[in-house]
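User: These chains co-purify. Model them together.
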Amino acid sequence: MSDIITLAHGSGGKTTGDLIKNIFVKHFNNDILMKNDDAASFMLSGKVAFTTDSFVITPVFFNGGNIGKLAICGTVNDLAALGATPLFLSCGFIIEEGLPIKELEAIVESMGNTAKEAGVKIVTGDTKVVQKNAADKIFINTSGIGIIPDGIDISGNNAKPGDKVIVTGTVGDHGCSILLERERLDIFTDLSSDCAPLNKMVGEVMAKTGNIHVMRDPTRGGVAATLNEIAVQSKVGIKLYENRIPVKDQVRGVCELLGMDPLYMANEGKMLIIAPDDSVDTIMSVLRNSAYGAQACIIGEVTDDHKGRVVMNTLAGGNRIVDMPVGDQLPRIC
Amino acid sequence: MSDIITLAHGSGGKTTGDLIKNIFVKHFNNDILMKNDDAASFMLSGKVAFTTDSFVITPVFFNGGNIGKLAICGTVNDLAALGATPLFLSCGFIIEEGLPIKELEAIVESMGNTAKEAGVKIVTGDTKVVQKNAADKIFINTSGIGIIPDGIDISGNNAKPGDKVIVTGTVGDHGCSILLERERLDIFTDLSSDCAPLNKMVGEVMAKTGNIHVMRDPTRGGVAATLNEIAVQSKVGIKLYENRIPVKDQVRGVCELLGMDPLYMANEGKMLIIAPDDSVDTIMSVLRNSAYGAQACIIGEVTDDHKGRVVMNTLAGGNRIVDMPVGDQLPRIC
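Assistant: Joint model of the two components:
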C-alpha cells in the first residue's frame, strides 16, 4: 500500500476497498458495518434524535485530541444534548491528496477509541479524495442517531424563568488550546482541549432526574453564543454571574494577554444544563462525581426580564450585556 | 447581507444565524428543522436504513444538475437501494470563503426541490466555512434515514445463481456529461447527467414484488465496479451481455473518442437490480412505465461459475473479464 493518500483512494475502486479494509474496518469493526452495503440497517423504535456536523479544525492534531476524536465527541454530545442515548454514527471523510496514511490511521484509530468510550457504533461511511490544495488535509463529517427516552423533552425552546444555568466545567479550554497551537505560543504547555464524549455523564444525570429543560454544548461561539441562542429560542432572559464562571488560570491569562473573552471561546467537552431549581442539587451532585463534570458550577439563572438577552453581573459589580457574537474570534475551531 | 460567503458565516454567531434563516430555512422549510436544536427529533419504528455520502464534484454546476441536487439524489438512492423508504436527511456544508451567496442559494434551492420530489425532509444541518484555497468552492455531506418494510432483505450479499441483472436505463450519462463539461468539449451539448431521485420508482417496484435480492446504484466506478463488489460480497459470478447494455450514442461516441469505457462511468440516476427470474417480468413492467426507468434492460445473470468475477460476452462474440477498477477514470465525479 502507498504511504500517502492518492486520488485512487477516493475512486470507489480496488484502492478504496483496500483503504476501507485496512484502516476503517480495522478500527471501527462492528457487525453492522461489516455488511458492506451502501447503507447500514438496524432495528430502532421510539423518539429518534438525528444530528450532523462537519469538522474542519486546523491543526488536525492538537493537545488533547485530533480531528477524529473531535468528530465523534461533537456528534455524540449533540445527541446527548437532547437527552438521547447515542447509538449509531456515520462518518464521511474528505481527504486532500498527499495526506500521509499513518496520519489518517492515527485519526481513525482515535475515532474508534472514542466511539468505544462513548458506546456508539460507526456503522456506515464514505471516503472522497480531492487533489492537492482543493481541501486542507482532512475534513470529517459525522452524523449520528440516538434514542430519546419516553417522557423526555429537552430543547433550546424550553428554558423557563426561575431555572438555573449550570456549566459542567471550566470554560474556553478548547478554543484557547487551539489558539496556542495555531500561533505556536509555547506558554502554558499543560493546557489541552477539553474534547470529550459527555453522553455517559449526561446519562447518569438523567437516570437521577428527567427534570431538565435545556442542554446544549457550547462549541463555536462559546457559552455566550449558546446562551444567546437559548434566550431567543425560549423567549427568556438569562443572567450570568461572572464570579461563578469557572475559567482555568491559564485560559484567563491567555485571554487577558490577547484581548479575548473566555465566554466566547469554544468548548468541546462541556455541557450547559438549564433546569428547574428543585432538580439542581441532584444534577450537581452527579456532575461533581463524574470525571468530566468535577468542576461543574451554577453560573446563572433564567429570568423574565430582558427577554432574548444574556446579561452578566460583572466582577466590578455592574451589569453588562453579553451579545451574540457576529463572527468568530477564531475560525476553524471545530 | 454580504454578496459572498465570509468566514463569519461559519462562526456559529449572528452571521451564521442569518444565513440559516435566509437561505437554508427558506428552502428546506419543515416543522422538524424549525425547532432549531442541535439535533432533530422524530418518531420512528422498525428496521432503519442509515447512510452517508460527501459530495466534492467539480464543476459544481453541470448540465442536468448541480452538487446540491446530486447530494440529495445520492443519499436518497443509497437508502432506496436497501429497499428503504427515505424519510429524513441531514446536510453538512463546507464552503470556501468567497463563494457567491447566489450560487449557494441556487444549490440550496435545488436541494429543496429535489427533496420535495423525493418526499424527504431535510431536518438538521451544519455549515462550516474555510479560508480561500482550503476547499474547492463547496462540499456537501448528506446523511439519510429510511425505513425498510417488514420482510424485505435486500443486500449486496444476496445475489443467487440464476438471478437476472437489470439496469434501469442507459449507462455512463453522468460521468460522460461531467467529463465534457470539465474538458469544455462542446460536442453533444444535449447530453446531460442522469442525476435523479429513484426512490419513488423503486417504491413502485416493491409495491408489486418484494422478491428482489440486490439493488445498488452504480455511481463511482460505474456498473463495472458495482457488479464486481456484489460478485465478491455474494460469492457468485456475474455474466453480462454487451449487446444488451443500453448506452446512448453520444456516450458511446465520447468514450470511443477518448478511450474510455461506459461500463466504468458513473451514473447518478440508475439502479442495478438483481432478482430471481420469476419476478423479473413484474419488475421490468413497472420500470418501463416509469419516467426514470423507461429504458430499463436485462443485461446479464448471476452464475455459479467464476465466483467473485464479472465476465462479459462481447459484441465480438468472445468473453472478457470486467475487472474491478483500481483507481478512477475521472476523479471528483460525485
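The CA atoms of residues 70 and 195 of chain B lie 6 Å apart.
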